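Hey L., structure's done. Input below.
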Amino acid sequence: MGVHDDFFALGGHSLLAMELIHHLQERLGLAVPVKLLFEHPTVAGLLAQLDKTPQLDRDARLMLETIRAEGKRPPLFYIGSTNNARQLAPALHKEQPVYGLNIFGTREATNPELPVEIAAIAAQFLAEMRKVQPHGPYQIAAYCADAYIAFEISKQLQSAGEQIALFAIVDAIWTPDKTANFSANRMLENAKRLSPGMLARKAGHKFRSKATDVYTDYLNPVTRRERLRRQQSTVVTNHELFYSKFVEANRCYRPTSKYPGRIISLRSRESCLKYPVSGLEYYLKNPNDLVEYQLATLHDHMFRHPWVEEMAACLAPHLLQAQPDDVSSMQ
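Output:
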């Protein structure tokens, strides 16, 4: 890794970012805000900012991340992994600002004794969104299980009398009973329907992931020691505890009311084979307001080239092309 290599381009994510910041705090004796890493994800850029920052905020956390601030269009707020948002932003129109909302910036992430509730996380995200855009119409997108937070945000916005111009969900499944779709025969049938190329990509991805895990956790002495050190890290332990509670909160969450507008659903072919019905229509006042696109790829590949560009093309006609004051009518 060179001093100009991008941390996130090399596979870094939110949890690894917290670990890196923890290392810096231990080595430098400084409380480094994680926001600096997201805004300057290279060694050279981060060091330059540390040199320029006379006093670092000890309580600095990053909940809302600026992916792309430039552009004349109303912002798109992406709920979920900001790595995905970083892949999506370049595929969108050059005038489209994009912001990511990260669960590891919430107060629950650093305070494991607090209960984790989807409504509380949504309220924190909404407060951050309003710092960028005080009033609607808002544009929201979310991936997979993070769609629950997005749904709750939309509910809170509507309760406040705000408009939502775009509500897009990427490969989320909200069937009442997901286990009904899982059986050995069903999985075999699904595999038969996938193209040989898709099957090869899926098998290759699983193999590389498992091989990397085995090598880094057990075979490489340096990374094995690092794994043991992480297990003793309070920061990592707190975040893992938070994430397990977050997963459980997601599992238990069910919307208390139906969404009155349109939902744009972008689904992978793999998802469509597993779940012919996404379940989103159960949570719409008008089931005909579900607009669905299918991409010929795997669930885990939705934000990879060339499918992320295809996804951006699907979103393009639904994104606002003018500032809210210039919008004469809304859906």
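Residues 63-183+247-323 form a domain with the Rossmann fold fold (CATH 3.40.50.1820). The chain has two domains: 1-61, 63-183+247-323.

-- N.
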